[in-house]
Specification:
The protein has helices at about 5-45, 50-85. It is mostly helical. It has one domain (about 5-85). Keywords: Coiled coil.
Length: about 90
């Protein structure tokens, strides 16, 4: 049993849906920039020259990079599903 939405409710939902997609795209762009910056830092770091504390910080950066990539991929999947269901 489905009910049709009143025009104001429909437009409010569509407006929220549109801005939700824009928010997701912005989040993905920010994560892309952050992961690119962090990847450059990781690639330019010579692990053998780091002392023990710097190595720990480097490993933390690697974990942070992996988390950011996973979050970005999750947001992309959500955005794709939302776009496919329009």
């Amino acid at each position: 049993m489905t009910q049709s939405l009143s025009p104001p409710t429909y437009y409010i939902i569509m407006y929220m849906f549109k801005w939700g997609k824009i928010f997701l795209r912005n989040q993905i762009e920010e994560l892309d920039e952050e992961t690119d910056d962090l990847e450059e830092t990781v690639e330019s770091t010579n692990f053998e020259r780091l002392d023990q504390i710097e190595r720990k910080q480097f490993v933390i950066q690697l974990h942070e990079l992996e988390k950011m990539k996973n979050r970005r991929d999750d947001l992309r999947m959500i955005l794709k599903e939302v776009s496919d269901n329009e």
